[in-house]
Amino acid sequence: MSRDAGGVPPSVDASHQDAIVSSIGARSVASRSKAARSTVSRSRHVFAVAPPYRLDLTVSALRRLSSNIVDVFTSDGEYIRALDTSRGPLIARVAQAHAEALTVTLEGDPREHKRAIALVRRMLGVDRDVAHFGRAAADIPWLSPLGERMRGVRPPRYPTLWEACVNAIVFQQISLHAATSIMRRLIVALGRLHNSDGVALYAFPTPESFLGADDDILRVAGLSLGKRSTLRRVAEALEAGTLDEAILEELATPDAAALLCGIKGIGPWTATVILLRGLGRLDVFPMNDSSVARNLALVSGSAPVDVENTLDSLSPQQGMLYYHLLLARLEARNDLGRASVSLEIE
Hints:
- Helix 12 packs across helix 13 (268-279) and helix 14 (290-300) packs across helix 16 (319-332).
- The longest helix is centred in the first third of the chain and has 23 residues, at 14-36.
- It is built from 16 helices and 7 strands.
- The protein has one domain (14-332): Hypothetical protein, domain 2 (Endonuclease III, domain 1), CATH 1.10.340.30.
- Strand 4 (88-98) and strand 5 (101-108) form a beta hairpin.
- The model is unreliable at 6-17 and 19-38 (pLDDT under 50).
- It has 346 residues and is an alpha+beta fold.
């Protein structure tokens, strides 16, 4: 369970929520699917990655659970993501050909391909050097075995600041599974649906689609009043330009966190997660998080853990500990690198 403002989830039964949201989304599925079947241009790109690199671990850290319907991972080890661009949908497919290379296939307007390649590299942490974390973790007895098992994970990053904010806010104060279910219903209701080889791929909802959504849709998806209000404030700030990724990028981490905390409903924990998952800031770690505490206990067992000293030892890449603890939990649940639970389009 995470910290910061949130609120108690609605009392509507989860399966009933799914049915209602699916019904709402079904009204526009046909038109959205038709739009997604327009003629596209395909290109294939191969680029090197510095070993060790593991696509399966990095995607697992990005998507959290296999029930994520935006970041899809197939049984063949391929990562698939639908992105909405100003020139229409773009589908990115990423596979790890061998230890030192990734193959990316893009489907969409060719004018968007160059930008998409840069975005994929950023999302999958291709150019991040986390050797410091590896060396520091090797010197911590309780962390060393996990670090060895997860060698090759790179810090993932959401493609937009909006997506980072939505994920951080939805995951406030509720369990991983509950938050993932809410995200799934929200995406089905508001996300644009694309058909890629018979598989339903949902692009993440835009700030515009969220601001234009009926409040009942957001409530039935599982968003509390507090979270709906916070997300509206974030969407409005992004639309107005008072919150912008470029602005945050120029600020030191404490100043960037302070700017985010200036939005009502975003506290220190949420700001930290946004900076870590949205901006790739590895010099932060989400403290006062009960799920992190449980994962620490899972990994360390009976060994004593001095969290502050551990973070000091891992600094300035202590954020990688967050990803390793998440992967440890997924490993224990047999959900590490598991094929996505996806939807088929007939």
